[in-house]
Amino acid sequence: MLVRLFFILISLAWLNVSAALSQSCNFSMTDINFGSVNLSLGGTPITAGTLTASCTGTPGATITICPNIGDGTGGSTSGNPRLLGNGPRTAPYNLYQPSGQIWGSYVWPYAPLPPILTLPLNSTGSGSFSQTINAQITGTLALAPAGTYQSVYSAGHTLFDYGYAPAQTCSVQSTRAARVAFTVRATNNNSCNISTTPLSFGTRSSLNSAQTASNQISVTCTNGVKYTVGLSNGSNGGTSPVNRLLANPATGQKISYGLYQNAGLSQQWGSTVGSDTAAGTATGLTQVYNVYGQIPVQATPPGGSYSDVVVITLSY
Q1: Single pTM value for the model
Q2: Who has the most CB within 10 Å: 50, 51, 166, 201?
Q3: Residue 84 backbone zone (phi > 0: left; psi -120 to 50: alpha; other: beta)
Q4: Is residue 55's pLDDT more than 80?
């Protein structure tokens, strides 16, 4: 009997196919805090926050990130400015890209858009980066009282979408979009600013009659601040608000004079709070006080230049 054996060659080939892995990203955002500011006096306070992203996926792939940031609880009517809120009061500010453009959103109704960020993954399929988000208060708020102004970005105010490039497009939302919460805040301090003009009695040839002159003190404080304005007795040894002294440094001769709060010269102006200082409650706008000076009748001293330095004390 003839037996024939047949061998079947069985082989197995491993297919080295690198399937695309699912991408995954986590985001975090620091609060943006302007700290203590003076909204009454203007200026444009600036600060910044940091957006951090950490992603995994296919090694060597690039992930496109669409960091949409809306208007927060402070709201906005056009995207510029956004608003910080303190009860019914608001303060204008905005968030900016490093390029100076407003950091907006593809999913809010306004024109400003966010930057489109890219994150290359390394050979192990991971990557991370940090991105600065700039912030600036953009206007003077003369009537703003002291307190904390803020806008809270909760789940409904951010949408950070992402996906593999080039398929990911920021104009279409994916199911991967994440929410990131943070707060923007500024503390408006009680603060004041003061300025004045010189008080000059001009040129006189005789002190046989009383001489008068006036100047102004301008006070600007945070809305609602209660304050007093006091005037020292001068730098030449004056003993009271109505016995200040102008002095001639060349001769040592002096001329007596007084400062008053009213044109009728019945209310002297000194430095004792509750007695002879001026008092006011700030509106946030500049408040102007007139200072009335008088040189009473006295012996006429030798000719020359006579002066005094009076220190203004603003207490609040």
Answers
A1: 0.76
A2: 51
A3: beta
A4: yes
